[in-house]
Amino acid sequence: MQQELTWAGPGQPRARPSSPSSSSSTSSSSGAGGGGGVRAAVEETPVVVVGRRECCMGHVVKLLLQGLGANPAVWEVDGDVEEAAVRAELSGERGGAWPATLPAVFIGGRLVGGLDHVVAAHISGDLVPILKEAGALWL
Question: Residues 77-113: pLDDT tens digits?
Fold first, then answer.
């Protein structure tokens, strides 16, 4: 897919897929299809945050990860149809229904969980080693 930049916030460009021909997978979803490519992004990118557009929880988890030095790819869903498509795509990966809430954080291709699980891993001191193992930090 070719990438077109949209603005995610002050000074933060975000890539959005605009056609089905590029191999880039660190992007937010757009259009009615919504789910296409999120599994590839999870498999190929060290840290992926899948969340609803303009959700404060997704923003908080992204800031936490950035504060630790990781640069998460953000895959945004806009509406129930896109969310269902993303959930269906990721459910196939897990072999059943995807129970996770959004935002969902994937590190090293594994579902870590929502904001609550990421914060708990951070407080317990487990998050930085997980990020290092996934290649998201070079400390």
Answer: 988 888 888 888 887 655 556 666 889 999 999 999 9
Can you list the domains of the chain with their CATH numbers? 16-134 (3.40.30.10)
**Residue 55 vs residues 94, 100, 138: alpha-carbon distances, Å:** 25, 16, 29
Do residues 14 and 6 make contact, with C-beta atoms less than 8 angstroms apart? yes
Predicted structure pTM score: 0.72
In whole angstroms, what is the distance from residue 139 CA to residue 132 CA? 7
Pick the closest to residue 46 from 127, 125, 121, 106 (CA basis). Answer: 106
